[in-house]
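for the recovery benchmark. tokens below, seq after
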């Protein structure tokens, strides 16, 4: 229900903006205060979330992010903190963040004697259906 409600509010903000009406939907990341959705988190949970690349937002940071979101002019804003080194350390960067986080391109190199993808396709096509 929480996700459905948020999706509705995001769509409502976009709809209102398309009509020239004011609206901003904020998609908050985790907060450092122990209330609401973060109330039951243990210190281990908090460290795990921080390692994921989304450290908690303090009240002061939240206020600054709120102000920035309101002047952005966008109908849907994600006021979150990103820990770029932690995100890079995860290995593969989540698709949503790939435009923000640069990582070295991974190139596959065929090992000596191994078949390339086209060689494999040719070998499979030559096989009988059985």
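predicted aa per position
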């Amino acid at each position: 229900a929480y996700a459905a409600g948020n999706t509705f509010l995001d769509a409502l903000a976009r709809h209102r903006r398309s009509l020239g009406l004011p609206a901003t939907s904020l998609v908050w990341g985790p907060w450092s205060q122990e209330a609401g959705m973060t109330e039951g988190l243990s210190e281990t949970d908090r460290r795990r979330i921080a390692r994921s690349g989304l450290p908690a937002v303090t009240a002061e940071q939240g206020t600054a992010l709120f102000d920035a979101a309101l002047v952005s002019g966008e109908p849907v804003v994600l006021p979150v903190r990103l820990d770029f080194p932690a995100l890079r350390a995860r290995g593969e960067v989540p698709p949503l963040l790939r435009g923000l986080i640069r990582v070295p391109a991974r190139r596959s190199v065929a090992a000596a004697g191994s078949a390339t993808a086209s060689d494999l396709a040719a070998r499979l096509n030559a096989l009988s259906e059985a």
